[in-house]
């Protein structure tokens, strides 16, 4: 059984972050080992201002020291929401290890051309050292633009996206999947980056939006990849699962802030 160290936030209500990724990875046959970066009463969209408790950076450091003492090995380290510059610096230092496993980074900080309310340029700068330490980068188009320093408005075309990818590769990015690219109004795309190759995968866009979709995408991709599936096929599998969840939510017509009814669809991943 593959073992995944999940470095991410934990929110009690709203179905996002660890609460989405743990069940998905588990049903795909992975042992998930959560290492929280921040505790939240809810996710940050639609429930008012949640209670937040940043986990001290020393907890992560001491936890990894404990794992090393006990010779606990991981097949993958997934790095998601870090929350502040101090945590980003801590995780960057922790990834400087010998014989490290596959490292997947989702640089969560913004969408639709804007930073999330608690992030800014300072946080982006703190994430930059992680680019060269990750084997796989999973940004959305906004985050890819911010990391590359190329204006979001210039990234909408395939030519502009190519410039973003070229810049990120020079900054240390190895492989990656950039989500949220657009081709036509009724399509949503993702750029799959392997070595020097870039392939744009286009799928019909589901006219419904919800919190937690990125976490579900990340989890399915991670689980498929560790199961021996190629990066492109893993990304397509992840997109298809999220699309199924969005369709189910649209039929249910429940509160958007409540997240997606992914639990009922987990059987599709077995």
From TrEMBL:
- Keywords, in A-Z order: ATP-binding, Kinase, Nucleotide-binding, Transferase
Name of this chain's protein = pyridoxal kinase
What is this enzyme's EC? 2.7.1.35
Report the GO molecular function annotations: ATP binding; pyridoxal kinase activity
The Pyridoxamine kinase/Phosphomethylpyrimidine kinase domain extends over 51-255
Q: Which Pfam families match?
A: Phos_pyr_kin
Q: Specify the species.
A: Sellimonas catena
Spell out where the chain crosses the membrane: none
Q: Name one GO cellular component term.
A: cytosol
């Amino acid at each position: 059984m593959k073992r995944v160290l999940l470095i991410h936030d934990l929110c009690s209500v709203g179905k996002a972050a660890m609460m989405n990724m743990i069940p998905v990875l588990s049903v795909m046959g992975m042992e998930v080992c959560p290492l929280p970066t921040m505790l939240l009463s809810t996710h940050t969209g639609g429930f008012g201002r949640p209670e937040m408790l940043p986990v001290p950076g020393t907890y992560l450091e001491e936890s990894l020291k404990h794992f090393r003492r006990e010779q606990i090995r991981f097949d993958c380290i997934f790095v998601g929401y870090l929350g502040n510059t101090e945590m980003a610096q801590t995780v960057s230092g922790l990834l400087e290890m010998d014989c490290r496993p596959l490292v997947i980074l989702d640089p969560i900080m913004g969408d639709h051309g804007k930073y999330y309310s608690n992030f800014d340029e300072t946080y982006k700068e703190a994430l930059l050292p992680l680019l060269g330490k990750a084997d796989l980068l999973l940004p959305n188009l906004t985050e890819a633009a911010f990391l590359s320093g190329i204006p979001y408005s210039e990234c909408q075309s395939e030519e502009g996206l190519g410039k973003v990818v070229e810049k990120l590769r020079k900054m240390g990015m190895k492989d990656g999947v950039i989500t949220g690219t657009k081709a036509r109004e009724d399509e949503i795309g993702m750029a799959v980056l392997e070595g020097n190759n870039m392939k744009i995968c286009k799928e019909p866009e589901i006219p419904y939006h919800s919190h937690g979709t990125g976490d579900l995408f990340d989890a399915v991709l991670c689980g498929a990849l560790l199961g021996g599936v190629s990066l492109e096929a893993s990304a397509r599998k992840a997109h298809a699962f999220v699309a199924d969840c969005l369709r189910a939510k649209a039929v249910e017509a429940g509160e958007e802030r409540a997240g997606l009814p992914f639990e009922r669809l987990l059987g599709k991943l077995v």
